Amino acid sequence: MFRYVIQRLLLAIPTLIGVAVVSFFLLRVVPGDVVEVKLRGDGGNVSQETIEMERKRMGLDKPLMAQFGDWMIGLATLDLGKSMWTDRPVIEEIAIRLELSLQVAIMASLVAVIIAIPLGTLAALMRGTWVDYVVRLITIAGLSMPSFWLGMLIMLTLLGLFNWLPPITFTPFYVDPKANFTQLIWPAMAVGYRYSAVTARMVRSQLLEVMNEDYIRTARAKGVYEKLVITRHALRNALLPAITVLGLEFAFLIGGLVVTEQVFNLNGIGKLFVQSISRNDFTLIQGMVMMISGFYIIVNLAIDMLYAVFDPRIRYR
Amino acid sequence: MIRKSTIALALTATLAFAGDAVAQTPKKGGSFQFAISAETPHYDCHGSDTYATLHFASPFYSTLLQFDLPKYPAVKGDLAQSWTVSPDLMTFTFKLTPNVKFADGQPLTSADVKATYDRLRNPPDGVVSTRKATFADIGTIETPDPLTVVFKMKAINAAMLEHFASPWNCIYAAKDLAADPNSPKVKINGTGPFIFSEHAKGSHVIGKKNPNYFKPGLPHLDEWKGVFMLQAAAMRTALQGGQVLAEFRSVSPPERDSLVQAMGDKLRIEESSWTLNLLLTFNTEKKPFDDVRVRKALSLAIDRWGGSAGLSKNSTLRAVGGVIRPGSPSATPEAELVKLPGFSKDINASREEAKRLLREAGVPDLKFTLHNRTIPQPYTPAGIYLVDQWRRIGVTAENKQFETAPYLAGLNSGNFEVAVDFSNLFMDDSSLGLSKYLSLGKSSENKSRSVDAELDSLYDRHMRETDPKKRIVLIQAFEKRLFDQSYQVPILWWHRIVATHKTVMGWEMSPSHNLGQDLAQVWLNQ
After folding, report:
1. In chain A, what residues touch B50 (CB-CB under 8 Å)?
2. CATH class of the A91-310 domain in this structure
3. Alpha carbons within 13 A on the beta-carbon side of B82
């Protein structure tokens, strides 16, 4: 297992190099000049000479391959460079937002698991009954409703019923757990609900399929309690595709909550992504792409590890 | 649907309440949380032209003078304890308040004022001063003693005293500027009522009471927090829920109505015409917009009077006017305005003329991209309205909206064909209002890149003219020439609607969202 993990981590290196190459060169093809946007983007009409000076200072006057070399050397030493817009280290720009985004992603995933697994199981076991229909209604509603719209409904409901709204500035969990929770639970619920709808439908269909497998029939024929048949044999197998969905959605949530972040006024990675794209802040975009790629790699590895936990037949060597 | 009577009632109640507020004794302390609908890219007042910088930085800085908002456009002293102006308007002498200290503890002297104004009028290499032209008439700045500053002018500027009250002229420490002329972009060290405490990027800014503030008894608040809320819906919900108690730029009429309906007498609504003019700017360096017939045709096609009636219901646009705010003393009256190209009330005749001009110019089915801004109010409705107006003369325009920074960068670098532009004035001064339309090179604010010696000459004559009546004649001549050439033409003037919780006291409404943001007088009636 340990050897397998090391192998996978080593394989991540060429993947990340590929991402770095593609993101670097694709961004250079995009029209727009960060220096011009930065110096002329707040009303000041600076001279072309000033723009050239700034370009030189930022190393943008160097040949493209030299810039790429600098970026790769930085990556090798875990230095993502400085934001072209703020001049602050990219790692610092990401770090101040990552805590919030990561926490929302974790909480939304928990909300999804808490809702999806019981509902999906219940719908499968009571297939064709009113319970199944209600669960399907809930999940279809979840799939149809954009998270940001649900977020707006949540906010208006809180305001209308309780004349209360969650805090609008982020307080880290270690500073004030209550303030932190009261701010982030609502976006987590808005996002987690949609996320749970996908997962619940997956659990339901997988469980229905697994319940017809020979080993389930065998377990029942051996006289195993139905509860054990479901939890130990059926559900463990049915959860494997659901885990994949949960994992990939989790990685997506780190940087993908652009509109939801705006509804709840969250200062997260999604908002930073949009801002950096509109400002042509290439180094920051590259840094975020690398970070999210890293998350995808780690989450995929974690999913594969979980496969082995849920299905003893899977062994990694 | 809100009935007009409901709003009128709320406004009346507000006025009555405002009257009560005058009599109340300010309460000390408290933390005031308000929304800022944009985040400043840097902290330097001198190099900025956006309210995002002022709503962030004003509480940390002082200026020589400031506008006395209840008596607007009268000015009063800020750092200046007293001042004199020579009869020929060529010498301005300011006596500074003694014992003023910067946030880092160093004392303020006349050298700091001189260093600040030197930076404003003659910025060193690599420093941006968007007010360089405004202070170009200053000849010398003398500092005979640590508390006296004397400005000697090269030429008369009839509005110079008001310019000394500009909120953009934050006074910086000479020592800081000597160490790094660009330090105000990243470091805040002022003499204002509050001391900079924290800027959480993308989230908020916090100011704490300056215990050494030079105005006795001020500020009233212990702390304020400006939360960046870029999404109007989120801001409105936060205002309604009391997470923020104010937003000082403006809300739109539909937002005002929904807030009044939801909050009733907890809300104060204050309205004013606004010193902001939404413009249409043609890039005169790009074909076919180098042809006056094309520019004029596109201006003639816009029904400004009809637009005023329609757009004022769902946007912050309202009044039809020239280059000076309608209703202010120098503004062109309606009877004269309707004679100018693009302002006639006979829109059918104007459009026929527009079609003829386009045919003559050889572009009857013109197609182009309208460079616009993503800020919804009023840019989105204005863009949609313009596209529809031009469709009626056979012109196809694509309304392309950009985030603020790329939008402004496009305007400044001339990377556009036709743009929705703005004239953001902090006061009703004609020298300020007209300067945007001067030739490229004379005005950094001219985005049309036009060069017109006649406009420059009219401006200069108007600047030196001290007789108000003669100045108005020159302003009208300037407008006629400008609209005949249609380099940059007004669309509509904005209308400001500020919504605050009634617990917020001491803040004064003004026609400019750039004024009165130092928060020194603000207190919370809680």
Report:
1. 42-43
2. mainly alpha
3. 1
